[in-house]
Task: structure prediction
Amino acid sequence: MIRRLLLTAAVLSVAACNSPEPAQAPADAPAPTPPPAAEAPAQPVPDNILTANGFGPLRVGMTTAEIEAALGPDANPNSVGGADPASCDMFRPSRAPENMLVMTNNGLLASVWLTRTSTIETDRGFKIGDEASAIKAAYGAAAVVVPHKYESAPAEYITVWATSDRTGPAARGIKYEIGMDGKVKSIAAGGASIEYVEGCS
Result:
């Protein structure tokens, strides 16, 4: 009896080993990889904002002819913007906003200047008449502050560079001239020429 049971168990074991394996359920197909999200395009700077690179259609490095094509010729052709206009000149293109001047060095746009009652703002939202303290707070350690050349404190210059180059062709920055009332009296944006304190000198 025991021998018969052992033989039966062996037969069943061999049959089990030779039986086909049950079909496995197909694995779930991997979820399709979503396409990469498109990068948000860089926000264009509004045309009425002054940046370290220029204003509206004006860009540092443009030729005088390109400046005139963009915003018109000198609105006051009889005025002299510099002792040697071929080397350095300052003028207001005829279609530029009031109290905006451009400076050219050797026939190329070097910087854009805001004076007097200009209401144009920089890309950080500052304009003539704003408090120096607000500008320093906004820029923090990036602001380079030096005493004014001709006026007593709190008159000073606050310069913020957008590039590590501050003297070469690639230099770009914005300078706020602060008056004795502690407020912005002029703004210059562009290349190394923003550090000039007497127009073309």
Remarks:
- Confidence is low (pLDDT under 50) at residues 1-23, 34-42.
- The longest strand covers residues 108-114.
- Residues 117 and 158 are 19 Å apart (CA to CA).
- The two ends are 121 Å apart (CA to CA).
